[in-house]
Amino acid sequence: MAGGTVLLVEIMTSVRRLFPQLVVAAATGQAQGNRLAQVADSDHLPAVDILITYCGEGDEIVLNTAKAACACDYPSELLRVVVLDDSHSHKLARNIEELSQQRPHLSYASRNLEIKTHSKASNLNFGIRYLESLGKGKAPFLAVLDADMIPAPSWLRCVLPHVLNNDRAALACPFQHFYNVPAGDPLNTKAEMLPLEAANLLQDFSDNAWCLGTGFVMRVSALEAIGGVPEISLQEDVLMTSYLASAGWHSVYVPEPVQWGLAPDTMAAFLKQCQRWTVGLVSLLDLEQSGKVGNSSNKERLNVAMWGVLLCVEAFAWTFALVALPLCVLRGKLLIPPLQAGQLRLLLRLATLDFLTQTIYHIGLSSVLDWRLPFDGIPTPVWTQPWRMMIVLRYFLVPKLLGRDPPNFTPTGMSSDGDAERAARANRSRLACCKVVLWDCGAWFHLAIFGVCMAGAGFRFTAALGDAVREDARQVDLGSLTCIAWPPVLFLWAAITKAAWLPLAYGLWPPPLAAQDTLTARDTKRDVDYPSEGVKRKYLRKAGQWSFVVKCVVYLISLVAVETSRV
């Protein structure tokens, strides 16, 4: 029974590493994963309208972003920058008016509505109508920034050429980078972002890279052709990409760090963002099935369905693995079926061959991502999977079974998620922080799993010591292989133990609250606070390969133990 459970866990958790190959195999366009940098170096440039969406993230934050947008290395007479304020703040309106005295291409607009749920798409459509109402003609290109995303001075000149030089390209979008990730990355933010970045790189192979909601530049004519920004989904950016592809347009991924924003600074806010992204993408699958999306082609529906199914399967698979595998280890049963020595050798050789082929694939992918991807695979954000599974159940299954409306998501700037944690960290109270993590955030589940993992490891270790006294050492080695030391199972167990420990470590050693001025450097000429070079280098540094080296050593030791065995 334990062997069958482990086999099921291995199959289910292999979806993440096998699925990208299916995306590449299904790509019909010319591979463009390593696009050459393009820079518009002339002043013969088109007009661009820049919309900055805001919903209460903080006046100083959006004002800095607005100043950075105005200070782009681009002719100011060809720019119009509009801050779209869904918090209808009178103070912000006055501040924008003051800034516009020195920056006449900057303006403020608000719908003056009470916003209770996600509304970025409708805010953008309002911004487009507002630009038309100015009566100065429409710019041929539209750019969008989130309130916290600071564009580099070279932003437009780096992104726009990918659309200008390709008549079929509707939009070009750079990836999001974050400058406030604490030292050590305690919430594993990069492990959340790298799979998305790798996925977008793979989508780009078929000229269908996702729009990621901020930093993108697009043709206004293409947006008009699909009826504006779609408002029927939380994931309006990905849905817009699907509409554009169905209409024959291409979308381009720009692998350059030209926008820097703020990652969630508390566990509650981080988990809420993960849940929102999960619901947003999976909801597209639900919309396709309900027939509410009528503009997508069959190819695009299949693409969306594949990614939606991946997220669902991954959430349920890893949550199941978090419970099942530690319990199997604790019970002391064989984790793989009993095999003869020859069969064991063959199975281990096949497992090693699988590891080597996956390594070759991921080395190639890492080279395109500036070596920021570990050679042993795309990191899976295991510790967040239980929350993802719960939101999928709450958002889709429970409403359908009980006839209730799905839960709404509060816009980021209006959310109070994390206030208790910020207070605990400000007071340097580990007890209060542990209470927030374990109870308020629900990491008591991880505490239980970690306890089972440690108990199972202790049981296996003492059992192996006892066997070593009574039996031949080689027999003990082979017995261990069929229990916890079988490499694929060992690495699964290690991933689960690490995932269970991560939120506990965060509660015990919470990162200090970083002041904004310690993360940025003032550009006095542009009057903008840009992320400091040190912060950016830290975020973009190459991935450590220690886990890959450990896996290589484990496979080597296992092969030597089996190949030299006389059993």
Short structural description:
With 567 residues, the chain is α/β, with parallel strands linked by helices. The chain has helices at residues 2-13, 15-26, 59-70, 90-99, 120-133, 155-159, 161-164, 189-204, 220-225, 236-246, 267-290, 298-331, 341-368, 385-402, 419-426, 430-440, 444-470, 473-481, 487-508, 533-539, 546-563, and strands spanning 48-54, 79-85, 106-109, 141-146, 150-151, 169-174, 177-178, 217-219, 250-254, 259-261, 520-523, 528-531. It has 21 helices and twelve strands.
Task: Describe the protein in words.
- With 567 residues, the protein is of the alpha/beta class.
- It folds into two domains: 207 residues, no CATH class; 234 residues, Alpha-Beta Complex (Spore Coat Polysaccharide Biosynthesis Protein SpsA, Chain A).
- It is 54% helix and 9% strand.
- It is built from 21 helices and twelve strands.
- The strands form three sheets. It has a seven-stranded mixed sheet with strand order 3-2-1-4-8-6-9, sandwiched between helices. It has a three-stranded mixed sheet with strand order 5-10-7.
- A hairpin with a 4-residue loop joins strand 11 and strand 12.
- It is globular.
- About 1% of the residues have low confidence.
